[in-house]
Amino acid sequence: MRRFTLCAMALLAAATLTATSMAATFDLPPLNTPASTEHHVGKVVWMDLVTPELGAAEKFYGELFGWRFQIVRAGDTDYVVAVLDGRPVAGMMQKPLATAEHKQAAWLTFIAVRDVDMVKRTALAHRAKLLVDSKTYGGRGRQAILADPEGAVFAIVASSSGDSPDYLASPGEWIWSSLHAKDAGSEAAFYQELFGYDVYDLPTDDGLEHVILSTDDLARASANEHFDKTPSHSHWLNFVRVQDATDLASKAVLLGGKILVQPHPDRHGGMVAVIADPAGAAVGLMEWSDSDTKEEPK
User: Fold this and answer.
1) Domain 9-159 class?
2) Of 238, 270, 272, 265, which Cα lies nearest the Cα of 61?
3) Are 69 and 14 a contacting pair, CB within 8 Å?
4) CB burial class (10 A; 0-12, 13-18, 19+) of residue 277?
5) Where are the extended beta strands (E) located within the chain?
């Protein structure tokens, strides 16, 4: 997959604003409806968007991916759940962003755990930083927000409604998560300590390091060395499965977004692209055929 430069301060803003927005009276809805009895430690199970324009985000993602929205409000906080074919796929929260701080909207990546506090302690012992301490929400479960040793912001969650079963994502659902880092191997080792990943080097011809992170015999994410090593932090990027990445990237521009990485063939054969929504949040587009597999390398 082609590497690109994104400002990780956007993700740091997401973590900070999430902490500010979630007042004591605010409760987050379950991640799975109906609840699941499955648990998949290390699986990326949820995304939350922090954005200054919730209505504009609903319009953009609704028209781009066919998402519909269920509103949850508490006090001054507006939070919506994006739904596709009856399944929750993401959350969105409105929060004004201070222009003087040069921050922008961002998606926050949630990774499943069984014990948030134990994983948090392990992360801190391996040079992570705690951005938002552990908190339990009656609907969602317990979660915390961290920055890894290179600064990539991510969340851990022990879902009270279980983790979603492993099935092939439909178009409009999240299909892949990718960590972009200065030292992909070191970052992979950090996440392996937290989630018990099996780690596999991915052969490439670009001279850069690419690593697959697997659990339950399935590839969960990748860690990729930056093509340009100038960014001060690594960052997570999440991809939505689409049928035509080129068409959706063009449509994103018509809806007020931008193309950050032009559509191009990925190593698995489909096209990928990276776009930004009108408020600047980055999201990947990935074609994925029904015959493609996420089985871990042998």
Assistant:
1) alpha beta
2) 238
3) no
4) buried
5) 44-51, 68-74, 77-84, 87-94, 106-112, 129-137, 141-147, 153-159, 174-181, 198-201, 210-215, 218-225, 235-242, 258-265, 271-276, 282-287
Report the Cα 79 to chain-centroid distance in Å: 17
Rg of the Cα atoms in the chain: 18
Per residue in 71-127, pLDDT (tens digit) is: 886 556 788 999 999 999 999 998 887 665 556 899 999 999 999 999 999 999 999
Residues 154-178 have pLDDT tens digits of: 999 999 999 999 999 999 999 999 9
Tell me which of 3.20.20.60, 3.10.20.30, 3.10.180.10, 3.30.40.10 is the CATH number of domain 174-287.
Answer: 3.10.180.10
Q: What is residue 115's predicted lDDT score, i.e. its pLDDT?
A: 98
Q: Which amino acid is residue 217, in one-letter code?
A: D
**Which tens digit of pLDDT belongs to each residue from 183-229?**
999 999 999 999 999 999 988 777 789 999 999 999 999 999 976 64
**Residue 148, token pair as written in the block:** 């890894």
Per DSSP, the residues of 209-243 read: -EEEEEETTEEEEEEEE-SS---SS-EEEEEEEES
Report the predicted TM-score, pTM, of the whole model to 2 decimal places. Answer: 0.90
Delimit the CATH 3.10.180.10 region(s) of the chain. Answer: 9-159, 174-287
Who's near 86: CB < 8 A, 6+ residues apart? Answer: none
Pairing verdict, β 106-112 and 87-94 = unpaired
